[in-house]
Known about the structure:
15 helices; 5 domains
Amino acid sequence: MNGELTFVWSPATTVFSGVIILVTAALCIWAWKRSRYSRGIGFLEALRLLLVICIMLTLSQPEWREEYLPEQRPTVAVLWDQSRSMETQDHVAGDDATMLTRAEVVKPLLDESKWVGLKEMAEVVFEPFSSSSSNPRDATDLNSALKATQERHANLRGVVLISDGDWNMGSPPIRAASRLRSQGVPAFTIAVGSESQLPDIEVVSLDAPTFGVEGKPVRVPFTIDSALPRDYETTVSLRTESGEEILYNVKVPAMGRLQDTITWRPKSTGDITLTLSIPPQRNEIDKKNNEQSARISIRSEELKVLIIESFPRWEYRYLRNALERDPGVSVNCLLFHPQLKKTGGGRPGYIEHFPSDAELTAYDVVFVGDVGLAPGQLTDKECEKLQRLVRDQASGLVFLPGFRGNHYSLLGTSLADMYPVALDPLKRRGVGSRLPGRMELTEAGRKSLLTKLEDDDDSNSRVWEALPGFQWHAAAMRAKAGTETLATHRSSIGPFGRTPLLVTKTYGTGKVLFMGTDSAWRWRQGVEDKYHYRFWGQVARWMAYQRNMSEGQSMRLFHTPDRPKSGDVVSLNANVSSAFGEPLRDGTVVVQVAAPSGMTESIRMLPGEEESWGLFSNSFTPRESGEYILVMSSSENPSTLTTTLSVQGMDLEKPGQPARFEVLQEISTITRGKMLLTTQLDTIIKEIGALPEPDPLERRLRIWCHPLWGGWILLLFGIFWTGRKIAGTI
Length: 730
């Protein structure tokens, strides 16, 4: 170990310091002479000169530098990838073209006898890596692997990284590579795998709803990815554990993605596992990913629907009949007929007054016909209750305007923010025409469940083309921001484009629908109830889906998204009633969440706004995949609600993905190493052996800014001041 004292000199600072010291020395001698060479004054002047010399030395930044060699032997770290992507079988070996996995190709490189040439000059260590997730092999984190190796080994001479380069977790590996370069540590990468995608078919997702209704069609969306070089037609199978099976013909695009939907009609209630599978293809590398399963709960259903109307127009009559004949729907009607002395009475289902708070929260969907804010119709307070029902209780609200224009008065109430479209104020009675108009589906409308009048897309399009037209529509100028337009008028164009006729909107926890015509009852022409009943049945179930996920006698729990993945934030919303049936505005609501591993988490649900109707919300993040058990309880309600939540795993690491040689090349370039193939191990050993000896390590002690040096100068100042005080010079 060598040490020396160094200064940061420059001609200017040297001259300046010398002049100051000489001038100070002269003044000190002169002062001592004036005191007739007093011993005390001589000591003080010497102390003054010492202080000036110390200050001038500080300006020159004195440092004590030591150079030393590390006591440990240099280390060469061999990092090898053990993630699931290394199971990809894409290496051709031998004359018989035997296919080996990437892991099998790497295994011979881990034989210590092949690294004997390096062991004389360095310690060779072998370290596997993947990720820090709960299932480490399901992801690859190159940055953490390089960073951890650098921190573990103080005298790191070089790094050999054996991988396919397919990182999918953590920070970009360029960060760790930059740190290696700053310390002069080269990284030699050994590329494993094929850069070309291997032939494979994968069922990526099966997005079945969380629950369905017995006897009602359930649409089950699915996604298939293809890495085959050609289009091909095949038959996918959707089956249940009871043996029921549905076959569906699809055309899978070459090197692309297929998104489609199978319609299934459950025949019994209970929890059912649906499994979608696609036949394996010749030369497919991974046949295990050709199917996906999802759990769905099938229930008996009774939706509660309220229809509010003024005049019993044809649209109202046929809508009421359609919903009354649906075995899963219970209908109440509130008819504000101006020619009747009082509401209610007559046939069953008619109610005499607007429901109370407890009664209103029981309704899943409310249809608001041609009624408004007027004597004998709705009041401002009742409009506010409807707003809270949608916002806090996840109910649905359907606006069905009529030619009397009563809806315009609703735009001055709390329902104004919920209204999905902007109405033309100059056309309160709407727009009529001699020639019948027709609806035209938008791109969103062609994919929506609400407009699915036939099971396959082509037939559905033909049905909408052939539906009978209408001769009146509401004067909607445009859809508001945050809405989704499903259908527009085919020929009517306003200042903002085509007139929107079918518009949906999410409001709070519920949904809103605007139907801009009053002639859906005409869809019965030639086909009787088929399309008319199906449309309104789908509307009622779509709008009530969210709030009916998990429902008890006086509690309701629903969440978004429907089928979360591990790592997603799951929003929980709960509706809780008091022991008297009123919506609970404040209280203690707790959800106990039990993960598949058995770990439990307690979530305190937070009450909504001051005027909210029994809404409590919070969120949590599931870290595991599988079935979670949720138990909700409240200190103000004796009952509890138990439900399940299915969480899908995040499949980051997939065998069959192409190797990413560009990542490995970038790491080796930044660190001034090289990227080589598995057959070039001898080259790597020679390259590492030829590396120059590392420079000695240097340790610096900055005297000029060290606390002890500052304390020494302060001590001298204190002695000098005290001495002058004693001598009586100050």
